[in-house]
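Fold this sequence, please.
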Amino acid sequence: MIRIDDLGLFTRSAALGSFTAAALEADLLPGQVAAAIKRLERELDVRLFARTTRSLRLTAEGEQYLPTAHSVLEALKQGQENLRGENATLRGVLQVTAPSDLGRNILLPWLTLFRRQHPELTLRFSLSDQIADLFRDPVDVAIRYGSNEDANYVALPLAPWNRRVLVAAPEYVERHGYPQTPDDLHNHPCLLYQQGGRVYDKWSLGSETIQVSGPMFSDDADVVRRWALSGEGIANKSWLDVSADVIAGRLIVLLKDFPGNASPLSLVCPHRKQISPAVSQLYTWLSDQFAALERIQ
């Protein structure tokens, strides 16, 4: 059976080009390192190093096996870190960014409770509808809507079931009536959202895309929701952003036979190596909260 310590001495001997150097690093005798390599070679039935009195180099088989040894050791290290991460006290700073509406109305109490459960963790929570640059901005993770198809990011699903819906206040519907088809939206004031200088005035409903218009628009999604609550018009919103308002009767979902676009929600970070214990536990916590929210939609 291959010993893990022998694998470690093999990779270090290859990196340092010397059994003696590997032995000094591991606080062992050179003979102990040589014995470990011999054991490994017997298990693999190959010769890993070509040895002379003056040099040490990998054989072709050693070169071939080295990436496998590294992968095994890295997997074991990651497994140990994951186990420690589940039980260790979370410390340091966790920087999270999220869209304004979702952040204020859903994530804020959840993150507050998460931080309360980990009192030695410092939480920095920023809200913006502008998309953060995870490689430049001081952010560990971003909560984002959309498919997150950028291969440069790691996207962990939180609410893949989420969709956009049309909503309006009951008093608005009493004054203006229900739209029966997407084309009826041409006769209603639509509340428009702007991001990065672009106004989102083409709404996808079922198989149709409708150009809409209205006298009010904002680059803050929470402002659009508040306008809808005050009866100013019809908004096209993520279900997550308006679910509490719909359940409470403050907003009504319109054109239910014409479903809006999918709008999955994900936790995004630059690289898997940056999924720290704090990020991992935050993801588990948020996944549980969104799963509960899905059951009542």
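The radius of gyration is 28 Å. The chain has three domains: 4-87, 92-162+264-295, 164-254.
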